[in-house]
Write a structure and sequence with these properties.
The chain is an alpha+beta fold. The chain has helices spanning 20-33, 51-59; strands spanning 2-4, 39-41, 47-49, 64-69.
């Protein structure tokens, strides 16, 4: 399944920083191989995992990304 990147909710209080160098390398890999591991979202489209993959897609000018839906087994305190 694919979703428009703009429909994904990303917490502003995430606990790690975006690594721009990693995003560039990931974009190069996605451009050659495609996306191997989809991002993970909750049922309300909140991002659980995959921020660097989303940013790499944006860098490549892509508007949609493959995703899986899952509910975390823990209570999120950052969203």
């Amino acid at each position: 399944m694919k979703i428009n990147i703009n429909e994904i909710k990303i917490s502003k209080d995430r606990y790690f920083k975006l690594n721009e160098e990693h995003v560039k390398k990931l974009a190069e890999a996605i451009d050659v191989n495609g996306l191997i591991n989809p991002v993970t979202l909750t049922k309300d489209n909140t991002l659980i995992a995959g921020l660097h993959r989303i940013e790499a897609h944006k860098l490549l000018g892509l508007e949609e990304i493959e995703y899986n839906k899952e509910e975390p087994s823990y209570k999120r305190t950052w969203a």
